[in-house]
Structures are given as C-alpha cells and as structure tokens.
Amino acid sequence: MKSLRIHRLIESGSCALGLLLTAFGFLSLLRWAGSEPHRHLIVLAVVIASAALADLISGLVHGFADHFGDPQTPWLGPAFIAPFREHHDLPMKMTEHDFIETNGNTFILICLALVLAYGLGGSMWMAFLAPLCAWVAATNQIHKWAHDPERAPAVYRWLARHELILSAKRHAFHHRGEHASHFCITFGRLSFIADRIVNWARDRSLRSSQMGRLK
Ligand SMILES: [Zn+2]
Ligand SMILES: [Zn+2]
C-alpha cells in the first residue's frame, strides 16, 4: 500500500515536471527560431517528424509488450507489459483511470529523457527533443480517448473524425483476434511498419524456440 502511494507520488511529480520541461523545451525551440523564416520551417519539420517517430515508437513499444515477455518479466513486466496485457482482457478499464494513472509512467520516461538531453547537450538538445516528448506524452491519453470517444474532448472527436489522430474505428482493428496488428496508438498511421517489425521478430523468436525444443 505504501509503495503504491510512493509510486503515485513519483508519477504526480513526474507529470508536473515533465510538462514544465517540455514547455521549457518548446520555448527554447521558439526562441532559437526567432524571426527567421527558414528556422520556422525547420521547427515545423521537427514537429512533423517527431509526430511520425512518436507514432512508430508507440507501435513498437506496444507490439513488443504485447508479444514478448510476460507481466512477471523483471523490471519491465509489472510497469510496461502487464498494463498492455490487462488492456486486451479489459479494454474499457483504462477509461476509468485518471490523468496521473494514464500518463504517469510515460512522464517518468520523458523526465529522464529531457534531463539526460540537457545534461549531454544543453538546452538545444532539450529543445529539439521537446516535440517528440510532447507527442509521446499525448499517446496514452489519445489511446484512452479512442476507447471512450463519447467522453473525450470535442477537439479529439473532430481530429479522430478526420483521421488526423488515432480514431476508435482504426484502433478497433487491434482489439480483434490475436492483437497482432494496428499497434500504433498515437496516430495509427505507421502501423504498417511497426506491425511488420514486431511480427517479423515474433516469428523469428517462435522459430528459434521451436528449433531449441527439437535439439
Ligand atoms: Zn495490444
Ligand atoms: Zn486499446
């Protein structure tokens, strides 16, 4: 019980710190762009490329958590694998989670990434990493809204209706059968890449375990 309270405290602190660091990163990026048009284009390109990368990362993390290891796997099992597996059995349970429960673990990773970027390369590294962190931070929230669009904000519903973000319709394909496709959960657009990588790795691992049994 006490460890749960401590984890909740760490998650809450990470959400607050992660939001502050991401906002600071964005401000540094805008300050760097100043009033030079070519730098504005670079910022736009970074924001778009970060969105694509976040979508791909969401698909790879989700796919590997779905099909490799189990909830008892040391370190990653309880925090990252268990929630994805539980989500297949009880897809609507995540819609009862509050903001901290939904996003806390992601913000812990974001804080670590931004602090590391600042430590290694200073505020500019942090600035260029901020858009990726913002998209990654939004991923679990978007996934939750895709499961409960009725209670999501109007802006999500508008974006989802125009397929500009992960929609309930697109995500429903993942919850069919063996949960072996449509892994991306930010925009859902790069699943065709993530699905191939995850299923290729899964086939390889199945084949090598079959070979191991035959030896
Ligand atoms: Zn899944
Ligand atoms: Zn889902």
Shape: globular
Output the helix-strand order: HHHHHHHH
Calculate the mean pLDDT score and round it: 94
Instruction: State the helix count.
Output: 8
Number of domains: 1
Helical content (DSSP H or I, runs of 4+):
over 70%
> Span from first to last CA?
46 Å
Major pleated sheet: none
Ligands bound to this protein structure: zinc ion
> Structural class given helices, strands, pairing?
mainly alpha
Radius of gyration: 19 Å
> Could you list the spans in which at least 5 consecutive residues all have pLDDT below 50?
none
| Strand proportion | under 5%
Q: Could you give the count of β-strands?
A: 0
Secondary-structure blueprint of this entry?
Layout: H1 2-33, H2 37-67, H3 76-89, H4 99-121, H5 123-147, H6 154-161, H7 168-172, H8 191-214
The structure holds zinc ion (2 copies).
One zinc ion is lined by residues 62, 66, 84, 88, 174, 179.
